[in-house]
Amino acid sequence: MKYQFSEEQYALGVSVDAYFGKTVTSTWQRELWDSSTGRDETFWAQLSALGLIAILLPEDHGGFDGSLTDLIPALEAAGRYAVPDALIESVLLAPAALAGAGSPVQRAEWLEAVATGELRTTVSLREGALVPDAHVADLILLRHGDCLQAYRSEDVELERVYSQDPARRLFTVRPYPGSGQPLPRSTEQMARLEAIELVATAAFINGICEHLLDTTVGYAKERQQFGRAVGSFMAVKHLLADGASRLWLSQIAARAAATELAGTEIPQHLEHSDHLRSPAHSALTGAVSARLVANDTQALVNHVALQVHGGIGFTFEHDLQFWLKRGKVLEQLHGGTAELAHRVGVAAIAEESAAEADEPPGRAQPE
Amino acid sequence: MDLSFTPEQQAFRKQVRHWLEDHRPTVEFEPYYTERGLAQHLEWEQELIEAGWSAPGWPVEYGGRGLDAWSQLIYDEEYARLDLPERINKMGLIHGGPTVIAHGTAQQKADWVPKILDNSQIWCQGFSEPGAGSDLAALSTRGRIQGDQIILNGQKTWTSFGSIATTMFALVRTDPAAQKHRGISFVVFDLDTPGIEVRPLRQLHGHAGFAEVFFTDAAIPLANVVGPLNEGWRIAQTSLSLERGTGRGVHTRLARAVGEVARLAAVSGREADVERLGPLVAWNYAYHHGSYALTDIIESGADAYAISSIMKLRMSELLTQVREEQLALLGERAEQVPPAAAHDPLPVTLREYWHARAGEIYAGTSQIQKNIIAERGLGLPREPRP
After folding, report:
1. What is the four-CA torsion angle of A58, A60, A62, A64, rounded to 10 degrees?
2. pLDDT for the residue A276
């Protein structure tokens, strides 16, 4: 049992954090809001150079054959800096979909260029949902029914949809009739891809919460009222402790869920009763759970951060809004808290009924 | 990250599981504070003692098995999985004994530690007082030094296992002139010392596990001070941090409580009930891995002080939420109990509900835990204290 990242995983997190710390500044972010694409080509190139895109790709196609856990420190760092790019979709999910669900021909054609960052991708796993960063993608993966379809940028028409978070670039994507090609193994890969999306988003959200808590704790130590730091009042302290206690567990949950997922084959029909007590079912429930816990944590920390900052945090000039808005946006994605809660509830009831058979008999406690 | 147990650890789990399954009691025990219940508990614990399963985490030289934190966790999980009876000497096994092992003299260790291990002494903790709860260092039970004795006067309260205990470890004020935290000593004494009176206290769910303990010129040996005189506050930190610790299988009990709620939600079938179940299951998942992560931290020897408070806080909050949900699912019949006198113990579901509520108070209230997390974990300034 080990709940620490490996030295390599930790080191990647540190170098990614250092790069973001240098690059993802407030000025840079605010300039991008008003630029035409909202994206910086050199930033994307550097993400590839850091090896982030290649991590989940197979070695024989220019990748590192890594695991989802390898990416968690980088995703947490991205959340800490509120990185504007659709990192989860472009760096992680679309490449993983192509590698896992693509035909040998598709893999041979695309993966190496994806690994180097030359071929930029994005994806939406929910049919009809908005697609982030579609305007800078060379390859867009869309869901139709149970299948993913790959489109080149010239195969689709894009219409920008504006977000309350000015860093996000969202698009309605309309493919031209007859265009695109299916990823042949996407149906059997769907459950796994959805789980990866949930865990990766949970890690990103945890990064957002980490920043919000750190910056709010810092502010509470400095801000003086009634002749002392506001952070010395229990009313304020307890808000921050509520956030910190949830965040610690939320980080552990996402790291554990990523590791379980990385080590488990996810079959296609998990609702089948044979699978209910399987590691795959528990890894999948773990992924939804980690995301739900991150959502709960985010909702609370978001509230605490603004509340403790008070009026200054409510200004457009203050950077707190980067994390407040991104946090609320991510909270609603992938079904949002209510749907995630329902999914976990359904899974737990199914597992519990399957478990009743092999429950230890009898109890020795008094009634 | 590596979320698997080693083959040795898996084999150890099997060994523990087989032994517990083969030897566990087959009847439901009466409460330990009744004569029959106490006999049942002692008989069961005698089996544990003889087989070396009484305190497996203790060092071998003190009769334990010297288990590391992971094996202790496995043992605790297996004990909790079978819902085996609460250990009546847990204040001695988890708090008092390890504190004596850490800070006691050779003589104190020889006198007390084996007796905790074999239940020839049952220990209880004398920290809280009517005027010293969250502000524990405000305690006023006086320990006046007179020759080679300490004369105790004052009162302790909320003393778990007090009604059956033979021995108390307590914090008493031995130097009233010193600053609040400085004049306190950690002492151990027999409860049948003349001048000590134990009055059982019934809890709101009808159980009589608590006691109040009164001291009137009770003379105990000065040699029973653990650690240096007037440094009891520091010594007690060992006991307090052990009390928060890894929770001793509490994550297994939380998981079982969530399972009970899942079954009720399955019967109800209402979508709203399924949806409210979700966060309980999800946080249980996080708590399970949190328990393991904390074990990893403890095993690596790192400082787990604030993390222990996080776990204690979240446990009591989560368990209360789960038990609230259980009552909600039982609905208006949740209040119904078998015909009984007003002061009789409540049946298990209601007892577990109120017990969860107590968890937000004992071993440092949720508010005290939040102070620790904020000050020790986040480095926020202390509230100005008079």
Report:
1. 40
2. 75
Q: Which of B321, B327, B333 lies closest to B351, judged by CA?
A: B327
Q: What is the DSSP annotation of A336-357?
A: HHHHHHHHHHHHHHHHHHHHGG
Q: Which of B329, B334, B251 is nearest to B293 (CA)?
A: B251
What is chain B's percent helix, strand, coil content, to nearest 5?
50, 15, 35
In A42-137, where do the E strands start and end?
121-124, 131-132
> How many angstroms separate the CA atoms of A152 and A175, rounded?
9
Cβ-based burial of B147 (10 A; exposed 0-12, middle 13-18, buried ≥19):
exposed
In the structure encoding, which two tokens stand for residue A225, read together? 């009222």
Chain B positions in Cβ-Cβ contact with residue A246 (cut-off 8 Å): 314
The answer on pLDDT for B27 being more than 60 is: yes
Q: Which of residues 347-376 of B touch A (CB under 8 A)?
A: 347-348, 367, 369-371, 373-375
How many other C-beta atoms can be found within 10 angstroms of the C-beta atom of residue B36? 11
Q: Is some CB atom of chain B closer than 8 A to the CB atom of A263?
A: yes
Any idea what the Cα angle at residue B101 is, between residues B95 and B105, rounded to 5°?
A: 130
Residue-wise pLDDT for B155-171, tens only, equals 999 999 999 999 999 99
3-state helix, strand, coil in chain A (%, to 5): 60, 10, 30
CA distances to A256, A278, B260, B328 from B268, in Å: 32, 26, 13, 11
Question: How far is residue A341's CA from residue A252's CA, in Å, rounded to a whole number?
Answer: 19
Q: How far apart are CA B120 and CA B57, in angstroms?
A: 19
Tell me which chain B residues have a C-beta less than 8 angstroms from the C-beta of A295.
none
DSSP string covering A119-143, please?
A: S-EEEESSTT--EETGGG-SEEEEE
A69 touches chain B (CB under 8 A): yes
Residues B338-382 have pLDDT tens digits of: 999 999 999 999 999 999 999 999 989 999 999 999 999 999 999
Nearest to B326 by CA among B358, B342, B348: B348
Compute the half-sphere exposure of residue A250: CA atoms within 13 Å on the CB side of its CA. Answer: 31
> Where does the pLDDT of residue B102 fall: very low under 50, low under 70, confident under 90, or very high at 90 and above?
very high
* Average pLDDT along chain A: 94
Question: Which residue type occupies A121?
Answer: T
Per-residue pLDDT at A48 exceeds 70? yes
Q: What ipTM is given for this predicted complex? A: 0.95
Q: List the single best residue of A236, A245, A351 to mutate versus B (max B Cβ within 10 A).
A: A245
Q: What is the mean pLDDT of residues B254-272?
A: 95
Give A153→chain B minimum CA distance, Å.
39
Residues 6+ apart with CB under 8 A from B290: A248, A249, A252, A253, B251, B310, B311, B314
pTM for the structure as a whole: 0.96
Of A156 and B304, the one with more pLDDT:
A156
Q: Which is the catalytic residue, given B45, B243, B325, B352?
A: B243
- Residues paired with B197 in a beta bridge: B214
pLDDT at B385 over 80: no
Contact B279 A365 (CB under 8 A): no
